Amino acid sequence: MNTKEAPIPDIQQVGSGLFDFALEREDIKWLLARLPADMDIKPGRVEYELQILKIISVGWSIAYLIEAHPWKTALQELFWRSMQEFAQNLSSTTELMIGHDVNYFQVLKDRLDMYVAALEDNPDAVEPVQIIGPAFAGACGGGDNLTISMAGSKIFASVLAQVKAYLAALDLC
Predict the structure, then answer these.
(1) pLDDT band at 135; cut points 50, 70, 90
(2) Residues 83 and 105 sit within 8 Å (Cβ to Cβ)
């Protein structure tokens, strides 16, 4: 019996897989389809913030899940460099469409800072998801909206679990 093992991906392939996953939208569409139609918060705002939180969650997952692996720093740099390039292209396209500059990568950095600050302000939280959901709802303009908070918690927890499964399958965490 001839058994061939799958080739081990290199860091570029892993980074590309994480980048593609961060921009994949099926989970966001699924969550949006389950939001109540009569919300005070515009679904477009929730969709925008869900995508931002998903991207941030992938980047955060890399740092959190592969603490001791030699690829950690290089993989983080690869992911965020790819995301910066994507954001720059998106910002340029958006500027052409609406006529003013939008720095999407700065938006990502600002939201990351917001979520990190929320986590730092609540060091006694058992799980980060307890803090991320309400912070997400606040970013959407509905700080006390439980449904929006749960959507943020769901995307964060789901991304963390999926990235963990991906990295574990590659023996990176």
Answers:
(1) very high
(2) yes
